[in-house]
Amino acid sequence: MIKKRILFITHSLHTGGAEKMLISLVNQLDYTAIDCSIISYSENNSLAIHLNKEVNLITLPRKTKFDLGPIIKTRRYSKIFKPDAYFCIGFFTFFLIHLSNLLSSKKTRRIISYHTTIHRNIKNHLLMIFYTKFLTKKDQIITVCKNQMNYTVKKYGIKRHYFTSIYNGVDTNFWRPANTIEETTLIRMKYGIPMDAKLIIQTAAFRPEKNHKAAIDAFNLLSKNGHNNLYLVFVGEGLLQSKMEDYVTQLKLSDKIIFVGNQDNVLPYYWASNIFSLSSKEVETFSIAALEALNCGLPCVLTNIGGANEMIENGVNGYLTNTHFEDIAFHWNKALETDFDKNSISVKAKNKFSLKRMVDQYTQLINAN
After folding, report:
1. Number of structural domains, the chain?
2. Per the domain annotation, does 326 fall within a domain?
3. How far is residue 106's CA from residue 100's CA, in Å, rounded to a whole number?
4. 8 A C-beta contact, residue 314 and residue 320
5. 40 and 58 in contact (C-beta within 8 Å)?
6. Which of 319, 353, 358, 361 could tie 331 with a disulfide, CB 3.0–4.6 Å?
């Protein structure tokens, strides 16, 4: 059997949805049929420890925006590896691969795994317009939900035939509902959360687009309206964390809103919780954290952006809300009052958003042509 040679290209292997997807994908590939390497253009590759030993990782850090060294080294490695396709995480790495092959007579197929919907500023929007000018007939774009694909087609005038939509998937053997009472109580005991309290969990880095302040304001509103036995846990770190902690202190909610930082294993936190929430106001495309929570049987209250409405069915596995804190509070309250079937939520998530299903679809696409 002749193996397909795939060269994966990423800006970094640091914490992020696209990077986690890449790790999950390459770890599940059939190495008897596919030979794969990863090039990372960063020194920050904290997720690399999760890579299978069969996967070759080449780090080519870019020292400046205009550093051509990594591009030249990519070209040299490509001549040795002779990839049948480049698999680019995002359009920036697609552009770098385009530059590395400018003088090459061979037009190698390029697959772009695209994880952004609405760009956060005009600069990135204009860069997207620029990058798409270099698409050729052999190139393919993979979006992680249908809403993202439809938006990108309309916004950037890219022909629909370039696109394939593949939902993110998670390991359904690992992400599961709790089996014992002990599993649900571990985290509550650690942080002094009463067993009869209601607990909302939000897993997101502290960045402006994640809109943590709206979640805090929503919690404050519910507290004022009589929810005295309600707790909120924030999992994650980031530049805005200390500012949010100060805000919580100002509101005198430090005993009810708990910041736990990044966690190597979030699973026990999901088991301890009643609701998963995201208050993002932009950028969010198809949250892997939400898929993890759904597989654990947690109902999710998500702001209706990106592909959230392809994930959530109101009243069945959660609710969709707008980005204002009043509406988030309203739907949190609604979710707290709804008798959700956790096993049903988990089974539906496993059927639709499994890692196996995602890998099978990517493998089929990689092996095409």
Report:
1. 2
2. yes
3. 12
4. yes
5. yes
6. 319
Alpha helices in the chain (DSSP H): 17-28, 69-81, 91-100, 122-132, 146-156, 181-191, 212-224, 241-250, 267-272, 288-295, 325-337, 342-352, 355-367
Domain annotation covers residue 176: no
* Whether the model pTM is above 0.85: yes
> CB–CB of 293/350 below 8 Å?
no
- Token digits of residue 187: 């985290």
- Cα-only R_g, the chain: 22
Amino acid in position 5: R
Claim to verify: residue 163 and residue 214 sit in the same structural domain: no
pLDDT of residue 343: 95
Query: Six-digit token pair at 40?
Result: 């990372």
Residues of the chain with pLDDT under 50: none
Structure tokens at 213: 């302040």
Quote the pLDDT of residue 118: 85
**Residue 1: its pLDDT value, please?**
65
| Domain match, 263 and 359 both | no
Contact between 135 and 159 (Cβ < 8 Å)? no
State how far the Cα of 101 lies from the Cα of 231, in Å rounded to an integer: 54
Which two three-digit tokens encode residue 220? 């404050």
- Name which of 68, 84, 231, 90 is nearest 152 in CA terms: 90
Domain of residue 334: give its range.
181-352
